[in-house]
Amino acid sequence: MFAPVAAAGCGTKTGAGKTDGTSLWCWPGGLSTKVVADAKQKFRNDTTLIYSEYSGNFRQKLTSALSGRAPAITGIKGEDIASFLPRADQFVDLTTLGADRLTSAYLPSKWQEATAVDGRQVGIPIDIGPTAMFYRTDVFDRAGLPTDPADVDAATATWAEFLAFGKRLRARLPGTYVLANTLTMFTIEVCQSGKRFVDQFNHFVGDDEHVKNAWDVAVQASTGGLCAGIDNDDKRWGPALAAGSIAVSFGAAWHAQDIESDAPSASGAWRVAAGPAGGANIGGSFLAIPASTTDQATAFEIIEWILSPENEARAYTDARLFPSTPSSYSMPALTEPEPYYGGQRTIDVFSASARKTRRAYEAPSDAAIQDVYLNELRNVEYHGKKPEQAWSDAVKAARTVAAENGVN
């Protein structure tokens, strides 16, 4: 079910190169609505920018529209970009509109995510999701553990060190868990390797060492009693964060908004450190132009303006969209101390994580394959399944999903 906030249609050309409307589709929270409102004013002499947000399955909505009445500009979620790259001909190759001159402004790893194998540039990055470790200083303090981000970094620089750190916390505070679950931990460690579940030659690599290592770390955390067994969408998640019964939450920069909204009473208690989790990316989306768009030049000008470094910095303030443009990181919108995090400048942590991120090739079937491993980790953590059997079942099921999607 989709819930549009405004009607939308394709940009159609009229006299003097103007359009009777340039439609822009996204999802709630996908863009800064303040920046979009300013774009409407900036381009009012060229076109009427009609902005629509759709909840629900946005990929499905866009896929249907591409064979019918597509918008002039559309968002593409980071987890969906791989499924659209094989259909790059349904979008404008943005290099034909001058995108090449923008390349240096964006993080290479994120720019390349929207580049098809034939070199077509399908999208321009809206944001990225550099990862880190969010933690409760008050809980760490009660456990007699370091609380300053630099000291926490030093104590948890590797996954093995983090596990040992977590065991000390659990021993000293038996009623407190380190993590809600192991799902994000596993995802981050896989991403840190620079590989995922299918390689660029379309070969299944879901049983390779980088996946098994991430699996083993996650299993050690769950079988070692570090996790509360609360899934990411469990209604107990927010109250547990607010109460401090979960001390750590791994996530991308945008995860800060989840914590702040679910645990407002814990303002000042949270901090961010790289810990073992830096150098990966989760999420981050794109703006693209469907091939059916009539006034492609105007559409590209709008994208270029909305996603300029200055406006990406504003989007971080407005909507917690972490910029894909490194020059934004030194702008006041990102460098101000953050009261929720005790006055910490979290940009220092996330910008370092962003610069360390390597691009991991993502096949169209990658998300479906990953879900198999996450489900088996749930079976280990929530239902007591033996890890060896769960790993064997995960690899077998993942191979099946891969084969169904044409992976060798």
UniProtKB/TrEMBL annotation:
Any Pfam family: SBP_bac_8
Domain of life: Bacteria
Gene3D superfamilies, A to Z: Periplasmic binding protein-like II (3.40.190.10)
Coiled-coil intervals: none
Protein name, entry field: Carbohydrate ABC transporter substrate-binding protein
